[in-house]
Amino acid sequence: MRNTALYKFLKSIYTFLRNQYYAYKRRPYLKELAILIDNDTSIISSNCFAGRIMQDKKMQYNTPTLGLYFMYPDYIEFLQHLEYYLKEAKIEFVDKSKYPLGNERHKQWKHWYPIGLLDGKVEIHFLHYFTEEEAATKWYRRAGRVNFDKLLVIGMDQNRCTEADIKAFDHLPFKQKLFFSSKDVKGQSIIYLREFADKGQVGDPYRKADVFYKHLINYLSGQDKKPD
What we know:
The chain is α/β, with parallel strands linked by helices and about 230 residues long. Helix content is about 45%, strand content about 15%. It contains eight helices and eight strands, in the order H-E-H-E-H-H-E-H-E-E-H-E-H-E-E-H. The chain has helices spanning about 5-35, 50-55, 70-80, 80-85, 100-110, 130-145, 165-170, 210-220, and strands spanning about 40-45, 70, 90-95, 115-120, 120-125, 150-155, 175-180, 190. The chain is globular and about 55 Å long.
């Protein structure tokens, strides 16, 4: 059944309608996002959320953190030495993840994708890439465009993220950063999303982008910022 022309046709219709529905839910927030995020801002994220924002704003990809994800210990390490990892570190590719969850996801994903290591430490799952050459070429090219004077750094409670990781993120020295959490953890940059409180982690940044956009706009406009 899955290999028939009818199944493939119906699946394409379903995918189109689903994407239109998600786009419809994001639409009310796009005008404010366009005002609050300049096109020369580089958005650093632990997953595909940076790509979602840049696609909706029709921005140039001036960050390499799209179409991929990090496990959380690696993302914190990456952020703690961001300039080094973006300007100097080299990518090597490996056959397996150092995380059992990473290997499980790799096997279950709809197509093979590269797993890279920056400086032998920071593991990156290039989820939406098909070859190692594509992943490396786009990473280096986009890393070279990062505007370190105008960063928006975003974290999400996913991918083996612990409360300790959330607190480590909150202590990072970036001027503009926020963390979307399904856990009520206290911190200046932590946005508690009650929408996901019973899920154990926050939702898909593509399918649930409207939820994140609402809180991101509140943060950027000062409504979600906490007093010092």
